[in-house]
Amino acid sequence: MGRMDIQAEPEARSEQTLERAAFAGAAAIQRIIAERDDLRRLTQSQQAEIARLRSSNDVSRKRVLLIRQQYLELATEILGQFEKFDGALLEAVDEHLAQPSRSDEDSSVSTAQRPNP
Q1: 1, 8, 21, 31: least CB-packed within 10 angstroms?
Q2: Which has the closest alpha carbon to 47: 59, 34, 55?
Q3: pTM over 0.85
Q4: Distances (CA, A) of 48 to 45, 68, 115
Q5: Rounded CA gap, 61 and 52, in Å?
Q6: SS3 readout for 10-48
Q7: For all residues of the chain together, what is the average pLDDT?
Q8: Max Cα-Cα span within the chain
Q9: Where are the domains positioned within the chain?
């Protein structure tokens, strides 16, 4: 009987070791499953955030394109007004240069009034 007790002890220890390993393995699997679930939730949250940001980017892009178009139209209009102003200014300068100046008229009058030698 003593010999059987000696053999039973290592078997009991072996069973306890196996049981502890099984519990540790089960706990590790539960931790892995919990981490996986956390990562899935995080991924879903990040995907929702990406969708929201893409939508926001699309709205911003459309606004920037609209502002750009309005800027180009305004710049074109201002350029047209500058060209009209430049044309009117050149026309006024040409008219002014085409008219005889007072000093030219005064010298013509004084030359005509001088007696001829």
Answers
A1: 1
A2: 55
A3: no
A4: 5, 30, 102
A5: 14
A6: HHHHHHHHHHHHHHHHHHHHHHHHHHHHHHHHHHHHHHH
A7: 87
A8: 169
A9: 2-99
